Amino acid sequence: MLKPLRQGLPPLDPAAVSDAASCALPARYEAVREARSFTRKTLDQWDVGERFDDICLVVSELVTNALRHAVPGEPDRPTASRAPAVRLHLMRWTERLVCAVRDPSHDTPAPGDSGDFSAESGRGLFLVDSFSDSWGWHPLAGTLSGKVVWALFRLRSAE
């Protein structure tokens, strides 16, 4: 099910992006609520219809995973002038939407190994895989350090 985690996005022409939005998220767990709020507001403006709930759920899981597993130190620990640790990007093409979460870690995203589906954690990537049409990750290059974990959603044509 969660086969190759290190894969690239399917070919999507960056020039054909019809809408894009992003927000910086601080290293605290309230950032998950901020990400959901930002996503809801953005998706309302973009009128994505039937995929609204799936996208919001996946954004919550991706941001939670980034804060829990990829941010150095303890989220919520007060530090002076801490730069935003995580960035959420939403990009919409005519029939596709991509949610991408950038974090500072180089570690490979790995699904939880617990077979206990009643557990309160460890199911994030399972949910991402279940509710998105595809997902993956790739390391950042150049001056940016870390990785991006993304999920792709197919949208219905407006026709």
Task: Please provide a written account of the structure.
With 159 residues, the chain is α+β, with helices and mostly antiparallel strands. Helix content is 28%, strand content 23%. The chain has three helices and five strands. It has helices at residues 30-46, 52-70, 124-131; strands at residues 19-25, 86-92, 96-103, 134-139, 147-154. The protein has a five-stranded antiparallel beta sheet, covered by helices on one side. Helix 1 (30-46) runs antiparallel to helix 2 (52-70) and helix 2 packs antiparallel against helix 3 (124-131). The chain is globular, with a radius of gyration of 15 Å. The relative contact order is 0.23. The model is unreliable at 1-6 (pLDDT under 50).
Describe what is shown at a glance.
With 159 residues, the chain is an alpha+beta fold.
Keywords:
single chain; 159 residues; alpha+beta; five-stranded antiparallel sheet; 3 helices; disordered N terminus
Helices and strands, with pairings:
Layout: E1 19-25, H1 30-46, H2 52-70, E2 86-92, E3 96-103, H3 124-131, E4 134-139, E5 147-154
Antiparallel strand pairs: 1-2, 2-3, 3-5, 4-5
Helix pairs in contact: 1-2, 2-3
